[in-house]
Amino acid sequence: MKWRCPLWGHLHINFSVESQMRKKNKFRAVTSHHLAGYMFILPWLFGFFAFTLVPMAASLYFSFTDYDIFAAPVWSGLANFAKMMQDEVFWKSLSVTFIYVFFSVPLRLIFALAIAMLFNRRAKMLRFYQTVYYLPSILGGSIAVAVMWRRLFMSDGALNAVLGILGTPTDISWIGNENTALWTLIILAVWQFGSSMLIFLAGLKQIPESYYEAAEIDGASKITQFFRITLPHLTPVIFFNLVMQIINGFIVFTQAFVVSGGTGDPMNSTLVYSLYVYQRAFKYNEMGYGSALAWVLVLIIGIFTAIVFKSSSSWVYYESKEGQK
Amino acid sequence: MIQSKVNRIRNAVLFHSSVVILGFFMLYPLLWMISNSFKPNDDIFGTASLIPSTIVLDNYVRGWNFVGNLNFGMFFLNSFFYAGVSTIGAVLSSALVAFGFARIRFFAKNFWFVCMLVTMMIPFQVVMIPQYLVFRSLGWVNSYAPLIIPMFMGQPFFIFLMLQFIRGIPLELDESARIDGCGYFRIFAQIIFPLITPALITSAIFNFYWRWDDFLGPLLYLNKPQMYTVSIALRMFSDPSSSTDWGAIFSMATLSLLPILIVFIVFQKYIVQGISTTGIKG
What we know:
The structure holds two protein chains of two kinds. Helix content of chain A is 71%, strand content 1%. Chain A has a two-stranded antiparallel ribbon. The longest helix of chain A is centred in the N-terminal third of the chain and has 37 residues, at 26-62. Chain A is globular. Chain A starts with 10 loop residues before the first helix and ends in a 10-residue tail after the last helix. In chain A, a hairpin with a 7-residue loop joins strand 1 (65-66) and strand 2. Chain A has helices spanning 11-24, 26-62, 79-86, 88-119, 126-139, 143-152, 158-165, 181-191, 194-205, 209-217, 222-250, 254-259, 273-283, 287-315; strands at 65-66, 74-75. By secondary structure, chain A is an all-alpha fold. Chain B folds into two domains: 2-55, no CATH class; 64-278, MetI-like (MetI-like fold, Orthogonal Bundle). Chain B is 72% helix and 0% strand. Chain B is built from 15 helices and no strands. Chain B has helices at residues 2-36, 41-44, 58-64, 72-103, 109-119, 125-137, 145-148, 156-167, 171-179, 184-195, 197-213, 216-221, 230-237, 246-266, 268-278. The model of chain B has no long low-confidence stretch (mean pLDDT 88). Classes of the chains: A mainly alpha, B mainly alpha. At the A-B interface, helix 1, helix 2, helix 5, helix 6 and helix 7 of A face helix 1, helix 4, helix 5, helix 6 and helix 8 of B.
């Protein structure tokens, strides 16, 4: 993102005059710029209070109440959380979400890194290839793709047709089987590795060529070069990707909703956590229990983000004090 | 000499062929969907073929005329309205806020800035229920207000992106404008705003994508079929219990990707740069 500043030439002339003016107007400026600052951030400030802070406080309160949408909330202490401990579906959705995050996030990063390294070279058609590999991440969030995905893995869908051609015919419905349904969602997530790939590619381009040349002279193998040069340089990028994808993984909703037809079936095997919150709150009108579930999700995400942040000092490598990211 | 040239050619062939084969598998699901939208219904199932035996446009006619008096023209208009208005709101409000954080020193600025960064990590699920209750009591369910109005409050990701951009613009520019009698707002509107055009475009593209694909918001607030966005209409259309007309579903699914594809092709440069420099998710 380069831009050119057309006024660059005029600047220094005005600068000394400006500092004199600033001294004169200091008092007026001191009082007015606070107000001006707040006027500019007012939209965000209003949104922060109205759509984030107050709703969060309300939801924290609701989580300690028994609240169907029709009558006023009634304080129930820790009853919602006690109910959660007994709620088998809650535990099921928790385990579904953990499996989803623990497989989709690392797999996606590994694919992104592998393909980025493949593309980190001079070759014809490279831009076109990048576009092709990146396309699924642009289109993957849409309902159209989720609807298509469902069809792809049905018993008479394209996957089984391809397997038939390869000589292993089967009529299993991958989305109808409780052992495989969640995997169709994980594959859908991994398939969209393109945006991480672009970030890795930008990171790879910043590693100085001379490092590899020096390693070559010292007789380091390609594998040693990868673990000693490439990977350490990419750790800031990996760190950033890891945090964002863990958060996004824990709140996945749309794909699971569409692929399972809104139910989380078969046998709740695709009932990701957000889908369960949605069902409790908006299908059964249990606003209190739904809020309690949502707060547990905040806690889980907070804990995982904190773990990644805490651990980062031991594995994220910054070349200079400034940091690369 | 000859040996090394042979090696180079062999490497190039290996690279291109493996990338093309893998790329084909990457695109296969999308191609399959597009090809199915032109196949007669009997041809869709049980085959992996991408080439229709006969090309029919009938799927598009049936898909477009959804049910009864509703058609996809209305859903597309709804989606364009929602994505368009919220994108204008998100970009303008984010630019204002970004300028405030980047260029004005004010009381407790760092505190508010940290608050903003933290909100990026708060899952929507935790504010979803109280927000719904408030909008419901305001009588805003079954209107676009609950979806659009929050978009006018600045979006942290875009604020952050624009802020980085504004920091690259020399401060002297503001100062010389101030000498000439410009107030903050004019500095923002006439100097900074035009200079951050690339960041504005990147933000607009991603906001358009996210709103076009948005599902949970419309699912919560739009319950009248004539208000459905394309996302909700597609999902109702493909509901396992209500429809088996897959040719028609695939045709409208394909059509719904067209606006995203067009934006992608036209603005590809901004998208790739936006992702590689900020890590924004596509």
